Amino acid sequence: MASAEWTSWRPLRLVEDVPAATLAEQMDGGQSFRWALAADGSWVGVFGRTLAAVRSGPQGLEWRGQKGATHTEAALRGYLDADGAQASLSEALPWRSDDVLRSARAAYLGLRILRQDPHEALIGFLCSSNKRILQIRVMVAALAAKLGESLGGDFHALPSWEAIARAEESVLRSCSLGYRAAYLRGTAKKLLVRPRWAEEFAELETPALLAELQSLPGVGPKVAACVALFGFGRLESFPVDTWVVQALADAYGLRGWKPAQLEQFGKAHFGEAAGLAQQYLFSAARNGRLIRAAVSVKVKPPRPRPRK
DNA sequence: GTCCAGGATTCAG
DNA sequence: CTGAATCATGGA
């Protein structure tokens, strides 16, 4: 296999600098499953049909793309929130009054929610249930390699729903999807006949978006929250996974709370960018860098939200 | 061997 | 409505 032909490295100027540790967490911290650390220390991945590499250099973030691809820098700038829409949202989080958030945010200063397209987020998180991040990345890479369009070298775009829907059972099984193969197949069959699903979903208010997502096979409350956050840019969405459950229990004293109650707490406590706060806490908890609050939050579990 | 992983679905009560 | 069992798979 020929390797891809790269452009030279160029600076990618951001509103706020990204330390190397933050970049690593951002590219391989459970948001996207499409980036891998190359031997030279750069992060190489595919988003949409764009192949790109980024690295943290002495002068700040640098990027390179495929020769002849003219859209790469603009696409990367959008993907990485280079113009800083999230910088002010992060600043407005209650980190001044919340020691836990302040510590987690300081540990990953500059961390942003990747602005993935809905297709990338949905495929990734359909594969995510009961799996570790490394293994999700392997599954998604196998899907792309076997069913996705080749982009040169060993790089592939994610497969279309049509490609997934008509894939041989043996091909899906060879991607180590386990029971998630049925999730992918079922969602593919529903979205195959609805090619503009992403545009249609993007028109919805977040509660309606979450409901639409949850109508897809394999999409429950947590996966829907992740797709809304990472794929539709709904920064107020607050996914509650096992790490967030543990983080909120340990650091905020919210032991025994159920995921739906913790989601309510997160949205109320962190506000319009709760999803960004969630990502700081998730990263800190997963890497053993979460502190305990000096004073635990004194609140009782809310009554379970009336489902509508 | 046991336990767990960025859970969802199905079933019993 | 809630809680438990079940679902493949791989790594620690």
List keywords for this structure.
308 residues, alpha+beta, TATA-Binding Protein, Endonuclease Iii, domain 2, Endonuclease III, domain 1, 3 domains, 15 helices, 46% helix, globular, DNA-binding
What does this structure look like?
The protein has 308 residues and is an alpha+beta fold. It has three domains: 10-83, TATA-Binding Protein; 85-115 and 235-308, Helix-hairpin-Helix base-excision DNA repair enzymes (C-terminal) (Endonuclease Iii, domain 2), CATH 1.10.1670.10; 118-232, Endonuclease III, domain 1, CATH 1.10.340.30. Helix content is 46%, strand content 8%. It has 15 helices and five strands. The chain has helices at 20-28, 72-79, 85-91, 99-107, 118-126, 133-147, 161-165, 169-173, 180-192, 197-202, 206-214, 221-232, 242-252, 259-270, 274-286, and strands at 10-11, 35-37, 43-47, 50-57, 60-65. A five-stranded antiparallel sheet has the order 1-5-4-3-2. The protein is globular, with a radius of gyration of 19 Å. The chain binds a DNA duplex (13 and 12 nucleotides) through residues 30-31, 125, 128-136, 138-139, 176-183, 217-223, 226, 239-244, 282, 286, 304, 307.
According to CATH, the fold-level topology of the largest domain is Endonuclease III, domain 1
Counting structural domains, the number is 3
Q: What is the makeup of the main sheet? A: 5 strands, antiparallel
What series of H and E elements makes up the topology?
Answer: EHEEEEHHHHHHHHHHHHHH
Q: What share of the residues does DSSP label as strand, in percent? A: 5-15%
Instruction: Write the CATH homologous superfamily of the largest domain.
Output: Hypothetical protein, domain 2
What top-tier CATH class of the largest domain fits best? Mainly Alpha
Shape: globular
On the 0 to 100 scale, the average pLDDT is 94
Q: Helix content range of the residues, please?
A: 40-55%
* Beginning-to-end CA distance, first to last residue: 52 Å
**Low-pLDDT residue intervals, each spanning 5 or more residues:** none
- Strand segment tally: 5
Give the number of helices.
15
Read across the widest sheet, the strand sequence of neighbours is 1-5-4-3-2
Cα radius of gyration in angstroms: 19 Å
